[in-house]
Structures are given as structure tokens and as C-alpha cells.
Design brief:
CATH superfamily of the largest domain: Bira Bifunctional Protein, Domain 2
Number of strands: 21
Oligomer: single chain
CATH architecture of the largest domain: 2-Layer Sandwich
Number of domains: 2
Largest sheet: 5 strands, mixed, barrel
Amino acid sequence: MRQSQLFTKTRREAPSDETAKNAQLLIRAGYINKEMAGVYDYLPLGLKVLENIKQVIREEMNRYGGQEISMTALQDKEIWEKTDRWDDSKVDNWFKTALKNGTEVGLGITHEEPLTRIMTNFISSYRDLPRYAYQFQNKFRNEVRAKSGVMRGREFLMKDMYDFSKNEEEHNKFYDNMRTAYKQVFENVGLSHLTYVTFASGGIFSQFSEEFQTVSDAGEDTIYIDEEKGIAINKEVLTDEIVSQLGLDKSKFIEKKAIESGNIFHLGTKFSEPLGLNYVNEKGEKVPVYMGSYGLGPTRLMGTIVEVLSDEKGIVWPEAVAPFKYQIVEIVSGNPKVKEVAERVYKMLEGEALYDDRDLRAGEKFADADLLGMPYQIIVSEKNVAEGKVELKNRKTGETKLMDEKAIK
């Protein structure tokens, strides 16, 4: 893509009402546009990042048998009443409205109920199990506070996956696979060194859920980390009994602020029983399906990457999620060979490079390249061209080297 053709532009300052670092940088770089508190548009470069994050997640979900679907955001009041989650006293962050015929509906905050109902059409026998379904979908939550940029939005993209298993043992095997899959996602997006499996309350579903908490001063949670074992406990469940139960040593804990980037839950039969999702087992007995849920937000993950990996110059994208691997910085001069080399490199890297072909001063181009955060910058200048080379700069480390243009790819 040629930067001159992008309708977005970089800006030196973020909106005065935006306090979150992730949103400030993403807005300044032209990745997102703020509509209102907690509501953002994803512009061309931002959408590419989001799609890349989705693909990283998708590959891991598919690896363990996940089947991707797309469900409606409009929610049927009836099924949520059956599970006792429609009342605002039980779930207080609904967006609800009424259709013109008077029917009350909600905008989806999670999808256990509707997917369980879908599965009643397809699961009746032990031969139909296990099944694993997931989706990427915009969710809506009526947050009281929306001050963390894209990490806590009123509308946000979520990957939610659900397993439908014959029993607890079969579910637990898949649950362990999802823990492994999530760890790989964080490895692939460059956050594994700061992300810990964290034990938290399982609420009404089970004793524990497992959160994936990424250490950051921008986090809203406090966790206690056992670095030796690579796990942590959320402050909300920290008791001597739980510490002992998990075989941890409280004296080794390190307290940190962290961002909850994902979570996995045991659901048991909480949803299958009230919604009638049963199957006939090998003995001819009718039993409820055993379930689990697995949440990971691509928009939140995008914000977390920016919060944690950016530096004083701007965003630093990991290669797996960057909109482009390279940014070509053509230093404008009167020498036509500079343009010729830049164009040639751009054609060679078609689809992998953002080409700054704008008629601007070198300083502005370098500042924009650092703000935009592509993993590598290819600098084409009169000096480099005279030596028959181009300069390759690693955005993360700042390391530079002169090389033949054909050796880049």
C-alpha cells in the first residue's frame, strides 16, 4: 500500500479526552477513530491488525477441532430467563431494547444460551459428542466506566468458544487443550513473557476460572505471581486456603498490576439443563451435556499489545499481527534513482510493505514510521543508493544494517 493513498493521517496529539495510552497511540497513528467513550472505529491499518490477531487465534482454535460460526447479536429474552440471567440484578451491563412489535431483546454480551439452544438441534446421542464451536463477534456491554481505550469498550470484538462434551473427564481434556492454545496465542503475539495463567473465582460455575493476565501498569487487576512456577492468583480470591490448595508459597509472591486478556471457564451443566441440551449415552440414559467456555478479545489484545510493547516513539507491532512487515521510507531527493529503487523494492515486497511515497521531509517520515510501528523499516536514500544498498532497521531493537535490496525478502 502506498501511504499517499491512505485516507488516514498521523497526528502529533491524541484527543484531550482520551487518557489510555493504547487509544492515544492508535488514534495518533490513524489505526482507530473514537466515536464516543468506549466506542471505536477500526480504520484500514487498524482493521488489518485486528484481522491478523483473529487469524492467530483462529489457527489455534482450529488446531483443536474448533468449528467457526457467526451468530446474531440480538438476544432472545426467553432463553436468558430460563438460565436466570436476564434480570439486571443478575447481569447488570445489558443493552436492552424493544422491537416495534413490543418484543424485548438484548444485545449480546456472551453467547452460552443461544449456542446451547442451537446445539439442541444437532446433539441427541453420545455419537454426536464432543463438539467445539467458536465465533468472532461484536459484543455489547453497558460499562459504567469506559476509560481504558480499546481494552474496555462498550462495543468490542470477542472470540468466544464453547465445548459440548459427554462428561467432566472429556471436557477437562479439551479445557487443558485450550489452556495450551491460549499460551500459544500469547507466544505468537509477543506477550508470553508477561502473561501468566492466573487462578480467579469461577463464580457460580466452579471453584476456579483461569485468567490470562498480562503484567502492565495499565491493568485493572492485582495479581500475585509465583515466577518460579509461572502462575498467579488474582487478589479477589487470595486466601491462605487457596494458596495451600494450589501448592504455592505465599512468601514467593510478587504483586503486579495486570490486564485480563483472556479466560477459560468450567460451565458444567449450568446451561444445558435449563435449556434441555441432553443426549442419550451408551446405556440408553438421558443425561445433560457438559460444557465449558473460552473467551479471548481481539480488540482487547490489540490494546494490550500497544500498552505493553510500545516505546517513547510509538507503537511496536509483533510481526504476526503488524499490518505490514515492512515500511519503505523513501528519502526525497533530486536523484531519480532513489525513487526507482524504492519503487522496485515496493514491487518486490508487494502486499508486505507500506510505502511512504509522500513528498515530506525525512524527519517527518522517520517520526511517522516509528509511530506506525511496522517491524522493519527499509530506508532508501541517495547515500544508500550510491553504495548500491538500502538500510534495514529493526523497529524494536533499533539495529540497522546496509544490505542489497534483493536480500531483503
